[in-house]
Automatic annotation (TrEMBL):
This is RNase H type-1 domain-containing protein. Residues 68-151 form the RNase H type-1 domain. It comes from Coptis chinensis. It holds the Pfam family RVT_3. SUPFAM superfamilies: Ribonuclease H-like (SSF53098). GO terms for molecular function: nucleic acid binding; RNA-DNA hybrid ribonuclease activity.
């Protein structure tokens, strides 16, 4: 849940109190029939989703390997990026920013260490694009791409879908004014 104002930030941090769930919170969970579990962490880190400057088009991706015939999550992450860039290149978009929640995937593209079966598609996309960059962001600020990946693995007809605007099944959307938090 994003917290954006200074007042709510201080409330958020006072509730965490050293990253331990408060006993009052545990009692509320218990009253609802949910078994609470104390979680400790060493730090709280903030992350912001950054909007692109014009004329850059930003695409956030997330790979999902469950139930789609893809063998590993690494393969799925690489495939998600290529499948995001292919239509962008076909449409003639020339300045693309791809953001994924997998740092390992960013490194794989940067070092050309992709799964061998994707190399031809990747080289074809590279030749079609004038300018692109691939970066990573924590999953806490990549949740709409995660929702799209989860939706994608439930589709059984192997037909791609294009949406104009926000699909109804994406209930939250990253916003540059919001700060998201990661408990580590």
């Amino acid at each position: 849940m994003p917290y954006t104002s200074r007042k709510t930030n201080s409330l958020f941090f006072s509730l965490i109190q050293g990253c331990h769930v408060l006993s009052k919170d545990t009692q509320i969970l218990s009253d609802w029939g949910i078994q609470g579990k104390l979680r400790t962490c060493s730090r709280i880190e903030s992350v912001n989703w950054v909007a692109p400057n014009a004329p850059t088009i930003k695409v956030n991706t997330d790979g999902a390997s469950r139930g789609v015939g893809v063998t590993t999550s690494s393969w799925a992450e690489c495939l998600a990026i290529i499948e995001a860039l292919e239509p962008a290149a076909t449409k003639g978009w020339s300045d693309i920013w791809v953001e994924t929640d997998s740092e390992a995937t960013v490194q794989a593209f940067g070092s050309s260490q992709l799964p061998w079966a994707l190399i031809h598609r990747w080289k074809h996309v590279q030749n079609m694009l004038q300018k692109f960059v691939i970066t990573s962001i924590w999953r806490e600020a990549n949740f709409s791409a995660d929702a799209a990946a989860r939706k994608g693995v439930t589709l059984t007809d192997n037909i791609g879908r294009t949406y104009l605007g926000r699909p109804s099944w994406i209930t939250r959307w990253e916003h540059p004014a919001n700060t998201y938090y990661r408990l580590r």
